[in-house]
């Protein structure tokens, strides 16, 4: 597991899940607290980078409201304020899987009307007209 994934896992379990359970709409995370709690040394820039990355925001369903701290943006005093979205992330693997499962059987009635999926594909393939490669090469030679 990489540093980014470890930060994300820690933030989800320590900050996000409890805040969602309490019904909070915003959370405040200090990079120094995360760094200290993970027992890391000299990894504050990695924590700050992860906490402000688009991937982190997308996968956790957060919106970065503000970022306060040193001008460099990297430091133990860097503080990130996020808005929680109640539904979580729209791009998480779990959400994608649920949305895919919702589509299951959607076309079953349509395929049933045309005699099933295999029958539909067979009819579509019959409609295709492919050029014969041999005929095309002889036509090209005759033009020359």
SSE layout and pairing:
Layout: H1 3-22, E1 26-30, H2 31-37, H3 44-52, H4 54-60, E2 62-68, E3 79-84, H5 93-103, H6 108-113, H7 117-127, H8 133-143
Antiparallel strand pairs: 1-3, 2-3
CATH topology type of the largest domain: Ribosomal Protein S8, Chain: A, domain 1
| Spans where pLDDT lies below 50 across 5 or more residues | none
Q: What is the structural class? A: alpha+beta
Strand arrangement within the widest β-sheet reads 1-3-2
Overall structural domain count = 2
Report on the biggest sheet: 3 strands, antiparallel
Number of helices: 8
Q: What is the string of helix and strand elements?
A: HEHHHEEHHHH
State the end-to-end CA separation.
64 Å
Mean pLDDT: 83
CATH architecture of the largest domain: 2-Layer Sandwich
- Gyration radius from CA atoms, angstroms: 27 Å
What form results from the Cα inertia axes? elongated
* Proportion in β-strands: 5-15%
Question: What portion of residues is helical?
Answer: 55-70%
Query: What would CATH call the class of the largest domain?
Result: Alpha Beta
């Amino acid at each position: 597991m990489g540093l980014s994934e470890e930060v994300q896992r820690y933030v989800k379990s320590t900050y996000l899940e409890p805040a969602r359970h309490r019904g909070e709409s915003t959370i405040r995370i200090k990079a120094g607290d995360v760094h200290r709690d993970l027992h890391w040394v000299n990894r504050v820039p990695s924590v700050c980078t992860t906490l402000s990355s688009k991937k982190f925001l997308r996968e956790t369903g957060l919106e970065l409201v503000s970022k306060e701290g040193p001008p460099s943006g990297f430091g133990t005093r860097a503080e990130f304020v996020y808005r929680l979205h109640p539904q979580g992330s729209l791009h998480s693997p779990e959400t994608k899987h649920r949305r895919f499962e919702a589509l299951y059987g959607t076309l079953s009635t349509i395929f049933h009307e045309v005699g099933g999926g295999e029958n539909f594909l067979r009819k579509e393939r019959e409609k295709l007209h492919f050029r014969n490669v041999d005929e095309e090469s002889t036509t090209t030679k005759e033009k020359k």
